[in-house]
């Protein structure tokens, strides 16, 4: 059986969680092909490389897993960059001409206080965004 390819999306504030989940998923026989990386040196050139690589790997994934943890007192935090990643994966599914659909999952419920919570809820209601079990 082929391993499912996973891209992890998360705020870099969740670095320890990212590494823990990467290891857990690999032990559960998933192939974690992309996750947020820490980098050193000049920010924008490194950000450009990481950003581009992250989105390319999302297109090759079977699953996009959103690690939305507690940040700044907000449970289930999803920032603008991760919201964009969710929208990208869902958008790929909507226009894809292949039989492959990327599973898009949040780890935790998201707060209704997010400025884009209504959109996220529409995607849940449509079955485009699910919760990891």
Task: Describe the structure in your own words.
It is a single chain. The protein has one domain: Rossmann fold (3-Layer(aba) Sandwich), CATH 3.40.50. Helices cover 41% and strands 16% of the residues. The protein is built from 4 helices and 5 strands. The chain is globular, with a radius of gyration of 14 Å.
Task: Write the topology of this structure.
Elements: E1 5-10, H1 15-27, E2 31-34, H2 43-59, E3 63-67, H3 80-95, E4 103-106, H4 117-125, E5 130-131
Parallel strand pairs: 1-2, 1-3, 3-4, 4-5
Properties at a glance:
133 residues; alpha/beta; Rossmann fold; five-stranded parallel β-sheet; 4 helices; 41% helix
Distance between the termini: 21 Å
Q: Roughly what fraction of the amino acids lie in strands? A: 15-25%
CATH topology: Rossmann fold
Specify the oligomeric state: single chain
Determine the fraction of residues in helical runs and give it as a percent range.
40-55%
Mean pLDDT: 95
CATH top level is Alpha Beta
How big is the Rg? 14 Å
Overall geometry comes to globular
Biggest β-sheet strands, sense, barrel: 5 strands, parallel
Number of H/I helices? 4
User: Helix/strand-derived class?
Assistant: alpha/beta
Low-pLDDT regions: none
**Widest sheet: strand ordering:** 2-1-3-4-5
Sum this structure up briefly.
This protein is α/β, with parallel strands linked by helices and 133 residues long. The protein has helices at residues 15-27, 43-59, 80-95, 117-125, and strands spanning 5-10, 31-34, 63-67, 103-106, 130-131.
């Amino acid at each position: 059986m082929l391993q499912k390819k996973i891209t992890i999306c998360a705020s870099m504030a969740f670095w320890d969680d990212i590494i823990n989940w990467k290891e857990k998923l690999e032990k559960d026989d998933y192939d974690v092909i992309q996750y947020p990386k820490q980098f050193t040196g000049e920010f924008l050139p490194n950000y450009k490389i990481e950003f581009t690589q992250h989105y390319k790997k999302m297109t090759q994934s079977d699953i996009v897993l959103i690690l939305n943890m507690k940040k700044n007192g907000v449970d289930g935090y999803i920032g603008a960059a991760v919201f964009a990643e969710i929208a990208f994966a869902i958008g790929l599914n909507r226009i894809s001409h292949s039989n492959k659909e990327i599973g898009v999952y949040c780890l935790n419920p998201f707060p209704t206080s997010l400025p884009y919570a209504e959109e996220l809820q529409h995607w849940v209601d449509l079955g485009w965004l699910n919760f990891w079990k």
